[in-house]
Amino acid sequence: MDSAATVDSVADDLVKQRLEGDENVDISRKLSLEELNWDNSFVRELPGDPRTDSIPREVLHACYTKVLPSVPVNNPQLVAWSESVADLLELDPREFERPDFPLIFSGASSLVGEMPYAQNYGGHQFGMWAGQLGDGRAITLGEILNSKSERWELQLKGAGKTPYSRFADGLAVLRSSIREFLCSEAMHGLGIPTTRALCLVTTGKDVMRDMFYDGNPKDEPGAIVCRVAQSFLRFGSYQLHASRGKKDFEIVRALADYAIRYHFPHLENMTRSESISFSTGEEDNSAVDLTSNKYAAWAVEVAERTASMIARWRDVGFTHGVMNTDNMSVLGLTIDYGPFGFLDAFDPSYTPNTTDLPGRRYCFANQPDVGLWNIAQFTFALSTAELLSDKEADYAMERYGNKFMADYQAIMTRKLGLVKYNKQLISELLKNMAIDKVDYTNFFRYLSNIKADPAIPEDQLLIPLKDVLLDIGMERKEAWTGWVKSYIQELSTTGVSDEERKVSMDSVNPKYILRNYLCQSAIDAAEQGDFGEVRQLLKVMQCPFDEQPGMEKYARLPPAWASRPGVCMLSCSS
């Protein structure tokens, strides 16, 4: 009998027994690691690689390869953890105190029920088709089902080589792992769809990295992040198999069916509805109902989720840095935190990725257009696999554009405390901010202090903004004074009190963001064995809209040293 099939059948039997016995369980009870309910549907329902070795190779006709974590460890240590992610899994937070917890989440020890694998996918990198990519250093342990039947994948990033590692070692360093851990949780705190992070552990072993690709490699502490998401399926998961010809089109369909079944179940049994029909734009005014093709309805929802996510990035000044199609989640989650960055001074051309500096393909201003380009590649893959018509693919892209603009306009309206979108006022504001390189986060936070009183003397109009309008000359003061006058005039027509508007604006304009220099300070301390700053930074970023008295230093502008080369300005090896 095939050994893999035997493992699968035993795992299935254990799941069924546990589910059958769960009817009378107190669902509020927190679980130990051994009590987690593993399901492993991805491995069970989709075609896998018959080989289980980690030798780099092209893996054909398979969505994954079963592979075990193989990172060398020596007394691994728990650096930081997220109790809110533990809540999703219904994991008892006392489990973080277990002496063997770092061993388990470094991959050195395993849990009964795990079925580790690396996913196979492809993608466009910087606009060029790269072929097979896959999880080169991320190994999914399996899926956890909580008492609400919510499905959560646990994945170790930096857990060793896989068949998709190519020439890399499959490992990760503490520097990049801290950034991934903190930003996953900071983005969640900001209300932005994202993969999550349960914990971060050091491996106790050094990893050689050439941080700046300048021929001067050095040893850095190794580390592993446990990432958590309802699914790690990417645009590239579909692209790869569609690119391999008709023999793999059924895999594209199986992956689409899998995603819809577990993550878009409302699309399984749709009834005809005028609300999701659309005009084809043809002369005969024909219309197509999306209920006639669940894959078309799914593509539209993926497009709209992606548009909403990128609009939310724009809201908080987030720049992803590597918006390759293999880094785009079909669930509309922010995924793969490599060279990310939040805007300090407002600069639409900002990119945190040194590799992207020549063309700035993935700069802040370009992200909405890149998102559309990526959706075009995703829908092309589905069309190639004969799941979508060309008209349905075009419609998904149209819906992306409409959704992005609707969400972006609503976001900017709320950020300014307006009751309706004012394109001229907002465009003029962003122009002024770019000219004077105004701090993006602090400006919008301070803006809520403006009073809607047209009688305020002209020489006092800028007082509420004095801490963010720094070093501007007389000509620029006049420009800002003119804008504030127009803003106050608009506010005075809303009928909203200053106090009510301030509460509303402060609830959408964060006081705290994960600035690069804050990350670097936490990294510097952690590399010396002090994890306190990582933990404190996590705590602050979990409540970014709150005042948090005593934490004001985390809202300060970057110090002068933060502009030195290499301070989290990364394409750096990780």
Automatic annotation (TrEMBL):
Cofactor(s) required, per the database record: Mg(2+)
Keywords: ATP-binding, Magnesium, Metal-binding, Nucleotide-binding, Nucleotidyltransferase, Transferase
Keyword RNA-binding part of the UniProt annotation: no
Pfam families named in the record: SelO
Family: Belongs to the SELO family.
HAMAP family noted in UniProt: SelO
Protein name (record): Selenoprotein O
